[in-house]
Amino acid sequence: MKKSKRFLPACLMFFSLLAGTAFAGESIVINGSTTVLPVAQVAAEAYMKLHPGVNISLSGGGSGNGIKALIDGSANIANSSRFIKDKEVSLAQEKGVYPVPHRVAIDAIVPIVHPDNPVTDLSIEQLSLIYQGKITNWKEIGGKDLQIVVVSRDTSSGTYEVWEEKVLHKAKVTAKAQLQASNGAVVQAISKNRYAIGYIGLGYMNDSIRGIKVNGIEATAATALSGAYLVARPLFMFTNGWPTGIVSDFITFVVSRDGQELVRKEGFVPLF
Amino acid sequence: MSRKAKEILIKNIFFLFALISILILALIIIFLFFEGIPIFGAVSVKEFLFGMEWYPTYDPPEFGIWPLIFGSFAVTLFASALAVPLGVLSAIYIAEIAPPLVKEIFKPVVELLAGLPSVVLGFFGMAVLAPWMQETFDLPTGLNIANASIVLALMAVPTISSISEDALYSVPQEFKEASYALGATRFETIARVIVPSALSGISTAVILGMARAIGETMVVLMVAGGAAAIPESIFDSVRPMPASIAAEMGEAPFRSDHYHALFATGIVLFFLTLGFNLIADYVSHKFKEVGSATL
Predict the structure, then answer these.
(1) How many Å apart are CA A42 and CA A267, to the nearest integer?
(2) Which residues of chain B neighbour A191 with C-beta distances below 8 Å?
(3) How many structural domains are present in chain B?
(4) How far apart are CA B142 and CA B125, in angstroms?
(5) What does the pLDDT read at residue B281?
(6) SS3 B245
(7) CB pairs under 8 A between A and B
(8) Is B126 in Cβ contact with A156 (below 8 Å)?
(9) What is the full DSSP assignment across A6-55?
(10) Residue B17 — very low, low, confident or very high, per pLDDT cuts 50/70/90?
(11) Which chain A residues have a beta carbon less than 8 Å from that of B58?
């Protein structure tokens, strides 16, 4: 299969235009960020429905793992919630891999609290001080007299990186912060804790928790896209070289109108 | 094929299988060291082990795992405090006191506990125990040392119980009969004859149970809270070493200092469990009952 891909990329692309089943029997391996995972999941399901016989295997081991998998050739597409790092690029080049980024959606990171928490609006400055452990009680920022339990993400997650860059401005998160390993785990922890504050991707918002406005602006698709909402970032799919064949067709599908509709349904912000 | 040739063939096949498992283990250990050692080019062993700050992704990064080591020991210690009495006493009950019918039920049920996937126990700790604990004691968080210790204790009980039980069973019938013949009561027999005779086996069970707790990952990842700070009470969150590795490995850039630091944490964990196993081995040999009471 690999050989035919190398020799006949043009043919394959041509056939793909003719018939939906042109890629029957082919497969795509996708690995990477858990933030991009829901988008990739619905896109893969929809794509496989359109192209019966195509097999897309999907896993979410984190942005770093996805890029690692792309570099060592065990994945065709690496989902990433951050841009590739210099170190990863040089490692890739050593192995003859040329990662190409494709922007597939925009992710807004939302600070969240328990639904019973009366606080609705915080400034970036206040959020930063809370996460540095300098504001420790909700009453200091207009809430009840309760200790603040800071819930953060593991310091190497892409979600955390955005929080660090856009909110903390590189200051250190207090060592007392609780660490959760995924968006879902943060939601779970916050929904059961009146003392806690956390942050998640907009795609993981549900009724068990309540989002907080940042600098008076609510995180929505429109505010993230316009740039008015400050804690937002693009999400990427990386391919090895400019994609060809089925990988190209899949990426094209993700950024198509249909694909972006799926992105919107997942709670992320579509590109157009 | 002659009988002798067959014998040799079979012997070699078994040798090969034994060799393969040892070889794989050796390769894993080599890999662990190969990936972990490079961090000591960036920080000294002392800074790594006793450093108070774990900020692996900051600039400049800090790789001090003392809070993580402390967290591991805290949960293991409290878990053992709960699991040892539970495990040993239930073993004594099952082996010596329970009527046959009760034994038929208790033994498999305790062993079934060992078969529960740790993620299920972790979920129980997270979704049931944590909110309950938070409400009952009015705590800022239910994800803390106490919660993790309880769940880990649940995991260690079957290990401790079933190994202790085997130790109790291997106490020869003669000892018991001799004790009864001297007019000792059942309790006296258990407390002064059976348990002391089985002590080496029971100690082994306790140490292996502790090793199980210190190496457990999923439970501490889910319910220990994950704060990389030295706790001030048993209701504070901690981040034991396995939780740190599991949470961060997925996103650590390949072969970066952070990646190496996580492997080095794995080395520390490896030495700890190795230590526990060596102690267990030493205890079971040193205090072995001679004669027919050997375990």
Answers:
(1) 12
(2) none
(3) 1
(4) 9
(5) 86
(6) helix
(7) 103
(8) no
(9) HH-HHHHHHHHHH-GGGGTT-EEEEEE-TTTHHHHHHHHHHHHHHSTT-E
(10) very high
(11) 155, 170, 172
Tell me how far apart the alpha carbons of residues B258 and B250 are, in angstroms, rounded to a whole number.
11
**What predicted TM-score, i.e. pTM, was given to this entire model?**
0.73
Fold exhibited by the domain A107-232:
D-Maltodextrin-Binding Protein; domain 2 (3.40.190)
* B16 CB-near residues (< 8 Å, 6+ apart): none
Assess A35–B contact: CB distance below 8 Å, yes or no.
no
Assign domain A27-106+233-265 to its CATH architecture. 3-Layer(aba) Sandwich (3.40)
Residue A179: which of B58, B142, B247 has the nearest Cβ?
B247
Domain containing residue B225: 42-294
Round to whole Å and give the CA distance between A123 and A121: 7
Torsion over CA: B190, B194, B198, B199 (sign): positive
The answer to whether the complex's ipTM is over 0.90 is no
In this structure, are residues A246 and A45 in contact, taking their beta carbons and an 8 Å threshold?
no
In angstroms, rounded to a whole number, what is the distance separating the alpha carbons of residues A226 and A19?
A: 38
Judge: A158–B53 Cβ closer than 8 Å, yes or no: no
Digit-coded pLDDT (tens) for B52-86: 988 887 778 889 999 999 999 999 999 999 999 99
> By CA distance, what is A61's nearest residue in B?
B250
The answer on pLDDT for B295 being more than 70 is: no
Residue of B102, B74, B55, B85 whose CA lies nearest to B228: B55
Q: Which of residues 156-195 of A touch B (CB under 8 A)?
A: 156-158, 160-161, 164, 170, 172, 174-181, 185, 188-189, 192-193, 195
Q: Is A208 in CB contact (< 8 Å) with chain B?
A: no
Task: Indicate the burial class of B128 (C-beta count within 10 angstroms; 0-12, 13-18, 19 or more).
Answer: exposed
